[in-house]
Amino acid sequence: MAKLVVAIAAVHGLGRRETRHLLLTDLDLDHGRLTVRRDLKHTVYLDEVTHALATDWLSDRYRRWPLTTNPHLLVSQQSVADDRLPPVSTMVMNDIFRPLGLSLSKLRQDRILDEARQTEDPVHLMRVFGIAAEIAMKYIYPAHPERRSTLWR
């Protein structure tokens, strides 16, 4: 599960809350995509590594807890027993990143900034990461300071 969570943040730029609340039904391995439920639905197209990690996690999840009815994609030993519990706690998510010496949010920000450095197109960032135009521009400006207009005095 930890490897999948890191890939979801590092490759696809999902945040902690949206990662924690993914449902099993949000993952479509046959078509290689993951639906992220936000105000506007966002579709993530899985790369080979994330697809393989998701497949491995599902195998491990079903092997360890074959009778669980918890609908969340990510579950822990505590949350698997009750489908009314949240998927995994914030503490579990933090514990995944602690050995790496960073946080999920920092990894997510770095991923989006890296993509912004590759493109000057905020619409590309909006499509890839499902972020709003204002947020996309907050990444474009540091990556391409020449794009920031200067005001006449």
Automatic annotation (TrEMBL):
- Quote the protein name from its UniProt record: Tyr recombinase domain-containing protein
